[in-house]
C-alpha cells in the first residue's frame, strides 16, 4: 500500500513512543500525522481524512475508542488499530466489538505493527477497488468480470475485440471459472446487447428432445407435441445463444448446428420448411474438444468453425491476488443477502483462502464464503467458519519432495541450501507471486525480497567450474529484519 503513500493518524500521548513510531512508519513511506489527545485526533480526523488510525487506548482526555466512535458517526470507514500498555482480554474484546480492526499491547513490536498496517491498508484498498468494479458493473471497463490479474485484463481486452464480430466463439475453461459470465460480457459489449441472451446447458437436455428444444416443433410432430413450439434459436433471434457444455452435444445435432452456422436457417421438427434466424452462437466447454475430435466424438468441421474465435478463462489458482478481491465481493454480496452489517475476513482466513488451490474455481470460492457468512456470528470471518476442505489445505499448497540423504554426511546440504531450494520451489508453485509466496513462507515481503536477492547473489557466485563462495550463500536471518 506504500505505493500511494497512505496517511496514518497516530494518537499517542507518550512523546518518545510517538516519535519512534512516526519515524519508523515514515521510513516505510507513509505520511504520519501525530496527536496526543482525543480532541486533537477528532479535529485531524475531519481535516485530513486519514487512510488508517493507530490509537493508544488510554489518553489524557479519554480513550481511543471515542475517536473510533466519532469516525463511525461521521460515516468514515477506515482501518483502526488500538494499542495499550494495559492489555486484557476484556479490553481486546470491547475494542473489537466496537469496530476496531486489531488490538496490540505494549511493549509494541514495530515489525508486528507494520505487518498489521500493511494488511489492513491492502484490505481497505481491495474494498475500494471492489466499489469501483460495482459502480461500473455491466457498463464499461470491468465488463462485470472482477479481477486485476494480467490474465483477466487480457481476457477483457479480447472480449472487447471479439464483441465487434458476428462470428461464433468458443469459450474454454475449467468448471466454475465463469464461462457464462464471459459469454454475457460478450453479448452486452456487442451490438446485440439490447437483444435476448439465451443460455442452455447441452448436458441437461435428454438426447431425444434436443432437436425439438433447439429448433422447435410443429403440432403433432411426435407423441405429446399437442401444439407448435418455438425452439431456442427462435427465442434468441436478434440476440445471442450460449451453448454450454457443447462437448456433450450428440453428433447428429452437431451436423445440424453446423448448418445453422453456415446458412442461418433452422428446420423445426415435423416441418418441411426452413426458417431464417439471426442469432450469434457462443459455445462453452470444460472439455478438450481437440482430443474429442481425435477420438471421433466431436465433429472436426464444427470444431474449426467454432475455434476461429476462442477464449480461455483462467483458473482461479492462476489469478494470484484476485482471490482476495473476489472473496471481498462475495462477502459483501452474502452479507447483503443475509441482512448482515459490515463483515470482514480475518488475516488468517485471508491467508487460508490464498493457500487453497480451489479446484472448483470461482464457484467454489463463492460457496465457501456463503458458508462462512452463514456460520459467522460476529463481524469477522474466522478460519473455523470456512469449509473443512479449505482449512485442511492451509499452508500445504506447496509440498516439495525432499531428496533422500545418502550415507555420506559430508554431501548433505546445509540449512541455507535447503532454505534456498524451498524458496525457489514456493516461487515456482505460485508463479512468482511474491505476496502469496511470503504468506506461505510465513514472512513479510521485505524479507522475501532480501532472500531472493541473496539467492541471486549466490547463483552469481558459482564459477564456471561449479564452485561456490560459501559466504555468498548465507540468507538473512528472518528474526532480525526491519
Task: Give me the secondary-structure topology.
Layout (H helix, E strand, L loop, with lengths): L6 E5 L3 H13 L3 E5 L2 H11 L3 E5 L1 E2 L2 E2 H10 L6 E5 L4 H10 L3 E4 L4 H26 L14 H14 L5 E4 L6 H11 L7 E5 L8 H6 L16 H4 L4 E5 L6 H13 L1 E2 L8 E2 L3 E6 L3 H7 L4 H8 L2 E3 L9 H16 L6 E2 L1 H9 L5 H15 L4 E2 L6 H5 L22 H15 L4 H8 L3 H16 L22
Helix pairs in contact: 2-3, 5-13, 6-7, 13-15, 18-19
GO molecular function: ATP binding; sequence-specific DNA binding
Pfam families: AAA_lid_14 (PF25601), HTH_8 (PF02954), Response_reg (PF00072), Sigma54_activat (PF00158)
Keywords: ATP-binding, Nucleotide-binding, Phosphoprotein, Transcription, Transcription regulation
Strand order, sheet with most strands: 2-1-3-6-7
What's the end-to-end separation, in Å? 17 Å
Number of discrete helical segments: 19
Q: What is the approximate shape?
A: elongated
CATH second-level architecture of the largest domain: 3-Layer(aba) Sandwich
From the structure provided, what is the oligomeric state, counting identical versus distinct chains?
single chain
Task: Please name the CATH topology of the largest domain.
Answer: Rossmann fold
Overall pLDDT confidence = 81
**Total number of strands:** 16
Main sheet record: 5 strands, parallel
Fourth-level CATH superfamily of the largest domain: P-loop containing nucleotide triphosphate hydrolases
Q: Spans of 5+ residues with little confidence (pLDDT < 50)?
A: 394-402, 462-482
Number of domains: 4
**Radius of gyration, in angstroms, nearest whole number:** 29 Å
Amino acid at each position: 500500500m506504500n505505493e500511494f503513500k497512505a496517511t496514518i493518524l497516530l494518537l499517542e500521548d507518550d512523546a518518545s513512543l510517538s516519535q519512534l513510531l512516526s519515524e519508523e512508519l515514515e521510513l516505510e513511506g507513509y505520511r504520519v500525522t501525530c496527536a496526543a489527545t482525543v480532541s486533537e485526533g477528532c479535529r485531524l480526523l475531519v481535516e485530513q481524512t486519514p487512510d488508517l488510525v493507530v490509537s493508544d487506548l488510554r489518553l489524557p482526555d479519554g480513550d481511543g475508542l471515542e475517536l473510533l466512535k466519532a469516525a463511525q458517526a461521521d460515516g468514515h470507514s477506515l482501518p483502526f488499530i488500538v494499542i495499550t500498555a494495559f492489555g486484557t482480554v476484556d479490553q481486546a474484546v470491547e475494542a473489537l466489538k466496537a469496530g476496531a480492526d486489531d488490538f496490540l499491547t505494549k511493549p509494541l513490536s514495530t515489525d508486528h505493527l507494520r505487518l498489521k498496517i500493511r494488511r489492513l491498508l491492502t484490505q481497505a484498498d481491495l474494498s475500494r477497488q471492489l466499489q469501483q468494479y460495482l459502480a461500473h458493473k455491466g457498463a464499461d471497463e470491468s465488463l462485470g468480470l472482477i479481477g486485476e490479474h494480467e490474465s483477466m485484463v487480457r481476457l477483457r481486452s479480447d472480449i472487447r475485440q471479439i464483441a465487434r464480430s458476428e462470428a461464433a466463439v468458443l469459450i474454454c475453461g475449467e468448471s466454475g471459472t465463469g464461462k457464462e459470465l464471459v459469454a454475457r460480457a460478450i453479448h452486452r459489449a456487442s451490438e446485440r446487447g439490447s437483444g435476448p441472451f439465451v443460455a442452455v446447458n447441452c448436458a441437461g437436455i435428454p438426447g431425444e428432445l434436443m432437436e425439438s428444444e433447439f429448433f422447435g416443433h410443429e403440432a403433432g410432430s411426435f407423441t405429446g407435441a399437442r401444439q407448435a413450439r418455438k425452439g431456442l434459436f427462435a427465442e434468441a433471434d436478434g440476440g445471442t445463444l450460449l451453448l454450454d457444455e457443447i462437448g456433450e452435444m450428440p453428433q447428429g445435432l452437431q451436423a445440424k448446428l453446423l448448418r445453422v452456422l453456415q446458412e442461418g436457417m433452422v428446420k423445426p421438427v415435423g416441418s418441411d420448411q426452413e426458417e431464417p434466424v439471426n442469432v450469434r452462437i457462443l459455445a462453452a466447454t470444460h472439455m478438450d474438444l481437440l482430443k474429442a475430435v481425435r477420438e471421433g466424438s466431436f465433429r472436426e468441421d464444427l470444431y474449426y468453425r467454432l475455434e476461429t474465435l476462442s477464449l480461455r478463462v483462467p483458473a482461479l489458482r492462476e489469478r494470484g491476488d484476485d482471490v482476495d478481491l473476489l472473496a471481498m465481493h462475495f462477502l459483501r454480496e452474502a452479507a447483503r443477502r443475509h441482512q448482515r452489517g459490515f463483515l470482514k475476513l480475518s488475516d488468517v482466513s485471508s491467508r487460508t483462502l490464498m493457500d487453497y488451490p480451489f479446484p472448483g474455481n470461482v464457484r467454489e470460492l463463492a460457496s465457501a464464503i456463503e458458508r462462512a457468512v452463514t456460520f459467522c456470528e460476529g463481524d469477522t470471518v474466522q478460519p473455523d467458519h470456512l469449509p473443512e476442505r479449505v482449512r485442511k489445505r492451509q499452508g500445504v499448497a506447496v509440498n516439495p519432495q525432499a531428496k533422500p540423504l545418502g550415507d555420506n554426511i559430508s554431501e548433505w546440504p546445509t540449512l541455507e541450501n535447503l532454505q534456498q531450494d524451498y524458496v525457489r520451489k514456493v516461487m515456482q508453485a505460485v508463479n512468482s507471486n511474491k505476496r502469496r509466496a511470503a504468506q506461505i513462507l510465513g514472512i513479510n515481503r521485505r524479507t522475501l525480497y532480501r532472500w531472493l536477492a541473496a539467492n541471486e547473489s549466490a547463483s552469481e557466485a558459482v564459477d564456471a567450474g561449479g564452485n561456490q563462495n560459501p559466504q555468498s550463500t548465507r540468507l538473512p536471518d528472518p528474526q532480525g529484519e526491519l
